[in-house]
């Protein structure tokens, strides 16, 4: 015979072998894709960005959250051949904001700094190439 008893803050449940032989009658509820509290990942089913995704590490809600959202949205929606090459201004604004908060957004070390400068140079080259195409 199964039973339950309380000992202080603990609840002790005893189940018999017979209790475990009976199949569960619990029914699983299908996930609601429109549930705003359900973790959906970075991109919601409707294609919007999920700013509450833990994968963003709180970037969307920090002191530079608006700049981050602007840059990330631009990149996500970019249709340029070099994705995001039309977002240089937004990323620059985000970077300038982050430099105002070095405790929250630590600066890169020397090894990362070189790759960051390479990335920025590539982005500038893409912008220059785009301008040249437009003037031809």
Based on the model shown, name its key terms.
136 residues, mainly alpha, Helix Hairpins, 4 helices
Q: First CA to last CA: what distance?
A: 87 Å
Low-confidence stretches: none
- The SSE order reads EEHHHH
> CATH top level of the domain at 60-109?
Mainly Alpha
Helix content: 40-55%
Largest sheet: 2 strands, antiparallel
CATH architecture of the domain at 60-109: Orthogonal Bundle
In the CATH hierarchy, the third-tier topology of the domain at 60-109 is known as Helix Hairpins
| Helical stretch tally | 4
Biggest sheet, spatial arrangement of strands: 1-2
Which geometry do the CA atoms define? elongated
DSSP strand count: 2
Give the rounded overall mean pLDDT: 78
């Amino acid at each position: 015979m199964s039973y339950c008893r309380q000992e202080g803050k603990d609840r002790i449940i005893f189940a018999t072998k017979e209790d475990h032989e009976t199949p569960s009658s619990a029914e699983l509820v299908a996930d609601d894709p429109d549930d705003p509290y359900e973790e959906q990942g970075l991109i919601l089913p409707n294609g919007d960005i999920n700013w509450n995704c833990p994968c963003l590490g709180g970037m969307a809600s920090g002191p530079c959250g608006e700049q981050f959202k602007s840059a990330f949205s631009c990149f996500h929606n970019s249709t340029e051949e070099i994705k995001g090459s039309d977002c240089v201004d937004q990323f620059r604004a985000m970077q300038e904001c982050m430099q105002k908060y070095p405790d929250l957004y630590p600066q890169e070390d020397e090894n990362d700094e070189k790759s960051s400068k390479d990335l920025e140079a590539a982005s500038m080259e893409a912008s220059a190439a785009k301008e040249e195409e437009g003037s031809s």
